[in-house]
Design brief:
Order of helices and strands: EHEEHE
Distance between the termini: 14 Å
Strand order of the largest sheet: 2-1-3-4
Structural class: alpha/beta
CATH class: Alpha Beta
CATH topology: Macrophage Migration Inhibitory Factor
CATH superfamily: Macrophage Migration Inhibitory Factor
Number of strands: 4
Number of domains: 1
Shape: globular
Number of helices: 2
Helix content: 25-40%
Strand content: 25-35%
C-alpha cells in the first residue's frame, strides 16, 4: 500500500513508454512527502477497447488508493503534481486524469512474504 493503478489506451505503444509512465507515477508518489517510496506499488493496465463520446482516442487515468488519514490538501497536491508531470511528459495524450481514493484501514488486509 498505497496502490497506483494506471489505465491507458492509444498512447503507450512502446515498452519504454510504459516503463516511463510507471516510473513517473512512482516518483510523484514518493516525492509528495506523505508516502514512503518502499510502500508504493504501481500497476499498468492497457484498455484494449475504448469509446469516448467526444471522439477522443487516447487517455491515461491513474487511480491512487491510500489508507484513509491523509488530508484533502495532501491528496489534492498529489493529484495536481502527478497530472502536471504526466501532461509534461505525455503532452499528446488527449485525456489525463487522477483519482485518489481512501481505503478503510479496518477492511483493508494484506499478507507479505
Amino acid at each position: 500500500m498505497p496502490h497506483f493503478v494506471i489505465e491507458h489506451a492509444g498512447c503507450l505503444s512502446a515498452t519504454a513508454e510504459a516503463q516511463t509512465v510507471m516510473e513517473l507515477v512512482l516518483e510523484c508518489g514518493a516525492s509528495c512527502g506523505f508516502i514512503n517510496r518502499e510502500d508504493i506499488k504501481v500497476r499498468l493496465t492497457p484498455s484494449e477497447h475504448i469509446l469516448f463520446g467526444d471522439g477522443r482516442s487516447s487517455f491515461i487515468h491513474v487511480t491512487v488508493s491510500l489508507l484513509a488519514g491523509r488530508t484533502d490538501k495532501q491528496k489534492e497536491s498529489l493529484a495536481i503534481s502527478m497530472r502536471a508531470s504526466l501532461v509534461d511528459r505525455f503532452s499528446a495524450v488527449q485525456s489525463i486524469s487522477i483519482d485518489i481514493r481512501d481505503m478503510n484501514p479496518l477492511s483493508y488486509k494484506k499478507r507479505l512474504c
